[in-house]
Amino acid sequence: MSGVELLLLVCAGLVAGLAGSIAGLASLASYPALLTVGLGPVSANVTNTVALVFVSLGSTLGSRPELRGQAPRVREFAIAAMLGGGVGAGLLLLTPPDTFERIAPWLIGASSLTILMRQRLRPPDARHDAGPALIGGVFAIAIYGGYFGAGAGVMVLALMLAGTGDTLARSNALKNVVLGIANAVAALAFVMLGDVHWDAVAPLAVGLFAGGRLGPIVVRHANAGVLRAVIGLAGLALAVKLGGDAYG
C-alpha cells in the first residue's frame, strides 16, 4: 500500500470516527475509502468491521461523563448486542452479500425520521429503563450491524432516544457502547473466519480512534436540536443513496 493510500485511510478514519461517534454513520466514510484502495465489497466490509472496533474504544473513553449511571442499561443490552452481532457476522459469511441491500434504505430512513421527530414522540425528560421490546430492538439492529453495518448507529440512536426518553448526549453515549459490543463480536468472527486486510486496518484504526475520541466532546457542547437535525438529515441522505444503489 502506497503512502498516499495510507494517508487516505487515516484521514477517512478520522472523518468516519467523528461521523460514527456523533451520528452513527462511520461506514459512510470508511467503507468507500477501503473500496478506493482496491478492496472488494466483502473484504472491505469485513476489514471495515474490524477497524470500527477502534472508533468504539475512542468514543467510549470520550463518553465517560454521559455513561455515568447507565451501567444497568449497558448490562441489559450487552447480551442482545453480542448475540445479534454474532448472528449478523455468520450471515455475512454464509449468505450472499446483498441480502439486506433492499431493506437497509427503509430501515435507515425510518430511523432518521424518528430522530428528527423525537420531540413529538416523547418528552425529553421522560426516562425509561430497558424493556423486552427495547432489548429485542437492540438484538435485531445488532444482527443488521454485524452483517451490513451502514447506518446501524442511526438505528440504535433512534431506538435509544425513542425508547429511553433520555438526552441526545446520553443516548448517543449508550449507542456507542451497545454498537461497539455488537461490532466487536462480529469483528472477532471475521478475524477468525474472514479475509481481513490488516495493512488497511492499521491506518484506518488510527483515524477512527482519534475521531471517536473527539466525537463525544462535540456532542457534549453542541446544540442538541441542531445536532439532532444534522444527524437525521444525514441519515436520510444515506438512505436515499443506498436506495438508489439498491433499486436503481
Descriptive terms for the model:
mainly alpha, 0% strand, globular, 248 residues
Describe this structure in words.
The protein is an all-alpha fold and 248 residues long. Helix content is 81%, strand content 0%. The protein has helices at 3-23, 27-36, 41-51, 53-62, 64-67, 71-94, 104-116, 118-121, 132-147, 152-164, 168-193, 198-221, 224-247. It starts with a helix and ends with a helix. The chain is globular and about 45 Å long. The longest helix has 26 residues, at 168-193.
Mean pLDDT, to the nearest integer, reads: 87
- What structural class should be given to the helix and strand makeup? mainly alpha
Query: Main sheet?
Result: none
Low-confidence stretches: none
DSSP summary: helix tally: 13
Number of strands: 0
Q: Specify the overall morphology.
A: globular
Strand content: under 5%
Ends apart, CA distance between termini: 33 Å
Q: Nearest-angstrom radius of gyration?
A: 16 Å
Order of helices and strands: HHHHHHHHHHHHH
Helix content: over 70%
Q: Which secondary structure elements does this structure contain, and how are they paired or packed?
A:
Layout: H1 3-23, H2 27-36, H3 41-51, H4 53-62, H5 64-67, H6 71-94, H7 104-116, H8 118-121, H9 132-147, H10 152-164, H11 168-193, H12 198-221, H13 224-247
Summarize the structure.
The protein is mainly alpha-helical. The protein is 81% helix and 0% strand. α6 packs parallel to α11.
